[in-house]
Amino acid sequence: MRDYVEIGIGREARRTYSLEDISIVPSRRTRSSKDVDTTWHIDAYTFNIPVMSHPTDALASPEFVIEMGRQGGLAVINAEGLWGRHEDLDAAIARVVAAAESTNPLELLSTAATTALQELHAYPLNDELLARRIGEVRESGATVAVRVSPQKARELAPKVIQAGAELLIIQGTMISAEHVATGGEPLNLKEFIGSLEVPVIAGGVTDYTTALHLMRTGAAGVIVGGGTNTNAISLGIETHLATAIADVAAARREYLDETGGRYVHIIADGDIETSGDVAKAIACGADAVALGEVLAPAAEAAGQGYYWPPVAAHPRFPRGFVSEAPTVLLENEERPSLETLLHGPSTEPYGYQNIVGGLRRAMAKCGYTDLKSFQKVGLSVR
Amino acid sequence: MRDYVEIGIGREARRTYSLEDISIVPSRRTRSSKDVDTTWHIDAYTFNIPVMSHPTDALASPEFVIEMGRQGGLAVINAEGLWGRHEDLDAAIARVVAAAESTNPLELLSTAATTALQELHAYPLNDELLARRIGEVRESGATVAVRVSPQKARELAPKVIQAGAELLIIQGTMISAEHVATGGEPLNLKEFIGSLEVPVIAGGVTDYTTALHLMRTGAAGVIVGGGTNTNAISLGIETHLATAIADVAAARREYLDETGGRYVHIIADGDIETSGDVAKAIACGADAVALGEVLAPAAEAAGQGYYWPPVAAHPRFPRGFVSEAPTVLLENEERPSLETLLHGPSTEPYGYQNIVGGLRRAMAKCGYTDLKSFQKVGLSVR
Amino acid sequence: MRDYVEIGIGREARRTYSLEDISIVPSRRTRSSKDVDTTWHIDAYTFNIPVMSHPTDALASPEFVIEMGRQGGLAVINAEGLWGRHEDLDAAIARVVAAAESTNPLELLSTAATTALQELHAYPLNDELLARRIGEVRESGATVAVRVSPQKARELAPKVIQAGAELLIIQGTMISAEHVATGGEPLNLKEFIGSLEVPVIAGGVTDYTTALHLMRTGAAGVIVGGGTNTNAISLGIETHLATAIADVAAARREYLDETGGRYVHIIADGDIETSGDVAKAIACGADAVALGEVLAPAAEAAGQGYYWPPVAAHPRFPRGFVSEAPTVLLENEERPSLETLLHGPSTEPYGYQNIVGGLRRAMAKCGYTDLKSFQKVGLSVR
Amino acid sequence: MRDYVEIGIGREARRTYSLEDISIVPSRRTRSSKDVDTTWHIDAYTFNIPVMSHPTDALASPEFVIEMGRQGGLAVINAEGLWGRHEDLDAAIARVVAAAESTNPLELLSTAATTALQELHAYPLNDELLARRIGEVRESGATVAVRVSPQKARELAPKVIQAGAELLIIQGTMISAEHVATGGEPLNLKEFIGSLEVPVIAGGVTDYTTALHLMRTGAAGVIVGGGTNTNAISLGIETHLATAIADVAAARREYLDETGGRYVHIIADGDIETSGDVAKAIACGADAVALGEVLAPAAEAAGQGYYWPPVAAHPRFPRGFVSEAPTVLLENEERPSLETLLHGPSTEPYGYQNIVGGLRRAMAKCGYTDLKSFQKVGLSVR
């Protein structure tokens, strides 16, 4: 059924597609973008826009988390980042930014900033500090989502839920329903999720089988995506997101059938840089997207114009790095508000701003007014 | 029948082709380019060359419209641009140009120029001013074509026809025979076109079905193309023009059969940058082309060496932007005349000048002497 | 049998391949490159290497023609270039070079040099001057090959043969066995070639049918190639040389069968930039190659480090332009001799020098020792 | 069975894939990278990591050879390089480095450095000097592997084995089991290898048939790869390593069957630049890899930050050239130790450092804990 090629005698490889390879094809009566509804319901929560933020300290300052809620989306706090390691969070962030800014512009990337991240993450995690900060955000009224790694989930999840997390994100570069380790007790996600009182979104996954197993653990949502794009070079593992989303959507159909109607949400995370990418991800089958670098220019983002994924802080094998946020056309101008990035108005033609407005227009031009039915829009590859 | 690939389990995408992907294949006895006839007949009008201009204020000054007629083509005036909004049109254009010129050359594009366009288009449309200007051009003897958007067609079309428009262009980024809107009366193009006294060219469309519906509205011509190439990034909707033209040509055959002989013209609009692109568009099935940026270097063009598509002026989600016209090799030289751009002679080897000369040579080398039969020339993809 | 794709509904395009797309695959016992024989026999002539030069004044100075003969190849003189138009040929060339050198380095190409070429070619052709120059080269003992255009063949061929041309090259961008023109007598190549006393090589062609027709005219060789690579942009006609050579080789087989053994040689011309390209062209089925720009760095070349194809001089629609010869790594060094370019030794790793040495090594590594059998070597596409 | 395309009438080419074209697809339960075993057993030797070094003087100083052993891999000494030609080896290397450093940075590559290499290799090979140096390294306790060319194998192999070589590498750009030469006695590898007392690794090969023949000679390992990537341009022979490895792995299966269980190792050599490439090579079927340029930044490498392949020294037709080692992000920093390059820790996100750590993580994320079973991991092409 799949499209396989024989790369050498007796060795096959599947042909896969990234978002960049595909395009949306309008072929129905056009609609007004005002008639488009972008509401996203997951578990008991409703969001006006199908947008989460990637769980990085480069985005999630308290102000950012609160503003994401106001703008209709969901910000995610990284429990294993700097929030619980440094009493003076601003100073910690400032150290990363200073290292990045001091880099010789001729260098491709800032190893000094990576070193700063590595050193800052070597500090111990102070549970009380983390809990206090989570609590403060919760008090603001924003929906609080906190990310833990699969390795630390058992230890940290109860604490962050206790502190106020309403949605738990269990996210590693790659996750499986049962991680196998010699010695040490593996995390059985099904049992673990069953023991929690809050809905869980887990990932990332990139294939049908792992996704189906993850759905069977009871997760409310599954994150599709295989981490940063340096994985393609450093690990030989390149996630082609269009294929991955479509495969996981097939797992969603299978699981719907198995369960007689339990719908697990798919959140696409990675490679999503513009409003067009958001539209394509949903067209492939995603229910929502997690945005990272594209939100980093926001005035409310913690990173002051810099971005890094959490894995950039790995002590021995960092993937990703500290980079300037894609302000694109904004030399010498102030950083835009998160509202502008998400809802416009914009003077920028590529969909780095007014991201949700772009999604609305794409849907309207194709004649769709809700996210679920837009998952069936025609696609082309070139 | 079509070529589909499975991008993920149960999700297909059609393989499509842009003009860049294809090449014309000569395989007949060669002819002299002097024997090539490029006449284009549409409705009661005959043009020596199969060339319209894209309806932008960056091209259509009164001088440009008149000169296009002299050179055998058809210029299109944008009824919703600056002609009807600013008594001092030159000053309005000059403001856009000044903003573009003041941009730091290191920036990728001029947001200041976009802001200027947005502000200038926020002025109210003065029907009398627009009518007066259309009338002045009409008096010069040039064939007058005026573009209205589908949204404003009902309101503006009678006025511009009254003012002297001989051809009405109803053009939006995407158009459908019936636009659906909650509240408000949709534009039924069939009834609307039937009520007009002038021939209508409508678009853009990119697929067979929409094109066929549009043909059934009574349009004399259909514009193929999905707007600016920033749509690919901002909306996820990338028009692959070779496929789109061929699909719409198939709709033309179907409609010919349905009607027992009514021939609807296809005008390709978008991605057409050189004489080679013009030849390819016709080889795919177009009867004529609409040229935009490639005409912007003309001394007669309004934009003084700058170009922008009408959608660059959108108040919240501009697509396209103000850019320097592709003078290519002409640093420190005067801008060429529209005659040189269309008919040469040229010192430029890529077909940015002597565009119709390039079309003639392509046809002659393939052994064709008229546009219609050249639609059957052999093609290759690499 | 061919590989076709449907680019749009009811419109097909053939999938074709350029030399860049393919690679030679070694799979036999390796040989020593010393055992490789590169002899090329065509008609009564034998050349040590299967190499002609492209008929441009940028290469063919008298010294260049003589040295090509010494190095085992065949230089081609352009009868319609500057040799017969300017008594002081050096001064004419110097004017082109000076225009090119005076160009602002930021410009993509030198329109001043194109203008110089256009003006220099506007001078009348002095038959006696041309004949005298051809005669002088003939006296040196080199084999003399002269190119005429199909348009001027009837007029000029007798004169250049009378002057000493031993091989006649009838070459235009595209040629067909019978060019059709309204008014004026078309050139019937079969009759014309039959009337000549010297062997004729004719081209360029890019398809099976035209090649077969051309073979039937009695030509000793057929040139495969569709002119400069600006044609792809200016005419929409891009020659994919690997496919073109293979198709014409199929015509050669057909014609061999038709005639019971008449072998027409195939000379590949265009896109051939390195020794690897020479090897690929022969692997696709060519018997020899015509080299242009890659020979321009030679100290003996007329252009003093600049190159242009003859079509760069077209008065209204030039294709190709004056460009710096690809000295590649030779900043501040002397220009290499033609001997070094063809036979080495070299300090350059990409096969821009020791071109024939590279061909020998490619053949040896694949286990072939003569050109004809190397036409069957395995190929891959990526 | 294979995937062939018709590039022209009657001429086919096989579709092949490079490492860059493929990606590893995780689809099993994830593991901890600590559980991954990268041990490589070949003949009587066991290495902790599946890594050889390419046999170039740019890497193999005595310190480098010894340190490679300490880090678990195998360094290879080039018997035909500078070790046996220059009493003062450091001075010889320094001359190459000085030539490279003196090159104008605007030049694409240093012909002066190539000239230096050519001149330094023109010195006679002093067998005693070579033997003395090999002996000194042997005394250090490191496993000693020495490379000879097929042409010189008969003459040099006994000497280097006598001097202490424990593994003999017979490596040329392309090798076949029997090289055919007019006059002179061909090297019959089967007889030759049978006569030696040490295990032999031979290559490079790129196809099934040659690999099978080479396996039948009794070689313990076969090197897959066709030399430097300038071959693609200079010879028209481009090795697509993913296909080549898979084809040779098929030959390994055939030979296993023929012999009832003799397992010949496959070492991939060429194009391997990052930890991701190492993982992909093994995923395609390799048992180990030979690393070249990626190890050149090591403080222990002979080339002091420069790299060249042995073929860069060819007297008439060099392929490859002297280039700066890919320090990538390390401007103004010290060169990393070989330990850091192989085992980390790293601040670099692309897998140019901590190469084995990257391999471990790739395997763990895919759920594999040993190299042999990782050869079956899923693959994709885009």
Automatic annotation (TrEMBL), chains A, B, C, D:
Every copy of the IMP dehydrogenase/GMP reductase domain together lies at 17-306
Q: Which EC numbers characterise this protein's activity in its record? A: 1.-.-.-
In which domain of life is the source organism classified? Bacteria
An example Pfam family from this entry, by short name, is: IMPDH
Record-linked InterPro entries: Aldolase_TIM (IPR013785), IMP_DH (IPR005990), IMP_DH-rel2 (IPR005992), IMP_DH_GMPRt (IPR001093)
Give GO terms for biological process. GTP biosynthetic process
GO MF annotation list: IMP dehydrogenase activity
Its keywords, alphabetically, are: NAD, Oxidoreductase
User: Per its UniProt record, what NCBIfam families does this chain match?
Assistant: IMP_DH_rel_2
Family recorded in the similarity comment: Belongs to the IMPDH/GMPR family.
- Name this polypeptide is given: Putative oxidoreductase
Q: Which organism is it from?
A: Corynebacterium occultum
